[in-house]
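Kindly inspect this one:
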Amino acid sequence: MSRSSVDGSGPRPLLGALAALDLVLPHRCGGCGAVPPPGRPLCRGCAVRLRALVHTPRLVGPHPRPTGLPPVHATAPYAGVVAALLRAWKDDGRRDLTGLLAALLRPALAVARPPGALLVPVPTSPAARRRRGDAPLLDLLGRAAGAEPGPVDALRVTRRVADQSALGRRDRAANLDHALAARSPDLLAGRPVVLVDDVLTTGATLAEAARAVRAAGGHPVAAAVLAATRRHRVPDGEEADP
């Protein structure tokens, strides 16, 4: 018999304690932290604000557009409650929001994906996977794909990269240059590919993913994202987030 089963230090007591904690602490809105209606991920106010932001899938793109970036389809701007939801889901462990975000991504996939195309998510770095304990984008894409053939985890990160959030357009491109590769060329060779990410900012990540797909003999025909940032110019000519 293991020590943990004797003294209660194993995972089962911990899971039980967390379940009990859920009964004490109220469930929080994924957008603002208020208490939502029972069984809902959002409070009524955030649900209204989300409906106002979400649109039918449309082509989006940064300016300037990085070389090799395929056409990108998005269903919302990265702003307001949409940005709050994505941060809570990806960085704060709110995996209960996966179903809601998958429903937002699904229309962009339907528009971007031609028959027979592979769905390939941008890979999670090993460091991020260790920090979060999972690969949230891969899970999200699996939910969004529905009955269609699911995602193919075909790309990997080949070297250490810096956190992109604090970098400008040029630095993002340099940070990701040749940082991705196919896990196996056989997965992608000769196949049309739709790349998927959660947010389009400068386009550097999707452009690098498209380069890696082409290097393996695949054809990146389009990309789909949940949200795209609204870009504007700053005095030195760099692109910046609002």
